[in-house]
Here is the input.
Amino acid sequence: MMYGQVLHHQGREEDLVNLNVGGTQHKVERCVLLRFPNTRVGQLIQCCSDAAVLELCDDYSPAEQEYYFDRSPQVFHCVLNFYRTGHFHAVEELCVFCFKISVVGSDLWRFEGTWCSDVRKFMWQTLEDPNHSKCSKGVAAVSVLVILTSIVTMCIHSMPEFRYVTDSEHSVLDSLELICIIFFSVEFVLRVIAAPQPLRFLGNPLNMIDMASILPFYVTLAFESLDEEDGEENQHLVNMGKVVQVLRLMRAFRVLKLARHSEGVRAFGETLKSCQCEVGLLVLFITVGISFFSMFIYYTEKEDASSKLSSIPVCWWWAIISMTTVGYGDVYPLTAAGRIVATLCILCGLLVVSLPITIIMNKFSKYFDKNTPKRCLSEAKT
Here is the structure.
């Protein structure tokens, strides 16, 4: 018998889970696997039916209460060590592509025992996993096309010749926007219906973006209908036009809907999320630099009557565009001392902005390294 083929534990037999990975048997305590209940094995031991079990493992023996996985035994030793220590370590001879990560598939067990589980499961995989089938790829392609159409329509609406209802072409744009909104609404409702946990689904950032891109249309429509009905009778509707304009501005969130279909955009969001401390320090350093150089440039330029840097708030604006190396040129120092201060401000801005770039790029690369096995395994499966 090979070393590590059977792992013995001093515990009650009913508290042990029998796992057979590539012919190697493991007896693991149930409490150890439940430390990470959302993982594949953690979900497996929570299933209540054989059908749900077979969705998470390759085979199952009810008589022996043993779960079979056609996987590499060497790889599973690293996985088992993760359950016990909470830290994942892979030895050098193992390739990272041996480890499969499936976010959508990890939630399939939650449909067990729910209403219309098969239909909702199919809807969930079709809407959330573009690599699941040809149908899901078609839905993703149509969704991207509708998002782009909505963005183009919104841009054309901003043109003066299409801004007001003066010709038939504008009504075509309105119809296109209405079709896009209907598609977004139906897609969002189907996602909510198909979600195994609706409350958890609504808390997802991508789904919050979906709501932010849909709700302004309906709220604007309600405000406009109230304005038409009440007219001049209600004084509190006088400023409703400004509210409607703010709500229309929120249509810009539709651009962020591309994050659902773009791994690059998701990687950028995850990178910012994981670099909160670094981004916070960057903002702090820039704020300190702006405050320092704005006061410094003010006292060096205030004696020059022709200088536009006549107050510290104006100097704040100058310091912002200088430290971020934008340099609009609308305000600039005229004295020699002011130009020296401006040079120091620009150099400090370059230094401060470049400090967290390496850290952010490393986090960005780690996101793709973490998701590369998933992408490659999905392509191999199809």
Residues 241 and 264 are 37 Å apart (CA to CA).
